[in-house]
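Retry 2 of 3 after timeout on previous attempt. Resubmitting structure tokens to design endpoint.
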């Protein structure tokens, strides 16, 4: 009986060894694959960080040079306007560039793109037009940056390493907002500042009653449409900024993913500050009324 048991045990050993070898091989494969993806991810992160650091350096150097001298020949952009010197080189590299956005004490210091014929191209492509999970901040295709539209909707990824629009998360804090109330948003032809009106989160791509489809508001057909949009933004805001906007003001809406629930978005809405520190709605009522006559 003992001998039979020993023989049975011996016969079972090869099977156990085979299973062990298979498990080790699977574990090694998983470990190898995980290591590969981690290395690839880190390499991509470093590549994107270097790309945008270099672009920012070009912009900052050109802006510094421009402030020290005016000898450079202006580059025409349209019949009325010329290119900002600091954006001229980048615009030459990629004609999809429409602006540059920056916010103090955040990592947000990026070119902003627009591809009308391929609306979401920069969702998964960098400034260099190469495929990238990081993408590049971009303007919604039906917005006109130069006109400009009443509301420019700008998208950027919420990357785990804090790049792209991840630092919009800081604006959930009223304390952070209180020290960072403005956004620099320079178009190809004009240096501009925007004052934050509201910061909120909402869900998208759903029929939930919690949904606010802020991205559908681009141009107001009349003052009521504009006022309704602002009222909803203020209603949803994490805190009261004490700032509102009136028909005739120009807005930017920054949008990024927010991970507290499915299909959630974090949104920052700001209005343009014109010369003298006022907003665009400082125009006369007659001008605003005339503007409301434009076709939808």
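Retry 2 succeeded. Sequence:
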């Amino acid at each position: 009986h003992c001998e039979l048991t020993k023989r049975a045990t011996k016969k079972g050993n090869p099977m156990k060894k085979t299973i062990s070898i298979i498990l080790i091989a699977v574990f090694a494969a998983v470990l190898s694959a995980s290591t590969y993806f981690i290395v690839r991810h880190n390499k991509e992160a470093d590549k994107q960080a270097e790309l945008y650091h270099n672009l920012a350096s070009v912009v900052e150097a050109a802006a510094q040079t421009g402030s020290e001298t005016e000898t450079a020949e202006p580059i025409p952009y349209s019949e009325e306007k010329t290119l900002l010197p600091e954006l001229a080189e980048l615009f030459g590299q990629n004609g999809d560039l429409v602006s540059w956005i920056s916010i103090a004490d955040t990592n947000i210091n990026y070119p902003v793109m627009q591809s009308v014929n391929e609306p979401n191209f920069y969702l998964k492509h960098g400034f260099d037009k190469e495929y990238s999970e990081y993408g590049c901040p971009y303007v919604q295709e039906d917005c006109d940056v130069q006109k400009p539209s009443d509301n420019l909707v700008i998208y950027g990824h919420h990357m785990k390493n804090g790049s792209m629009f991840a630092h919009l998360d800081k604006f959930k804090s009223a304390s952070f907002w209180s020290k960072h109330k403005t956004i620099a948003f320079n178009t190809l032809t004009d240096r501009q500042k925007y004052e934050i009106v509201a910061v909120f989160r909402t869900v998208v791509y759903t029929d939930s009653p919690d949904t606010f489809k802020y991205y559908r508001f681009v141009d107001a057909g009349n003052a009521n449409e504009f006022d309704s949009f602002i009222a909803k933004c203020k209603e949803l805001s994490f805190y009261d900024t004490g700032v509102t906007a009136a028909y005739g003001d120009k807005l930017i809406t920054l949008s990024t993913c927010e991970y507290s629930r499915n299909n959630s978005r974090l949104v920052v809405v700001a209005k343009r500050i014109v010369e003298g520190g006022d907003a665009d709605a400082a125009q006369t009522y007659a001008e605003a009324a005339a503007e409301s006559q434009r076709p939808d």
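Attempt log closed. The first helix runs from residue 2 to 68.
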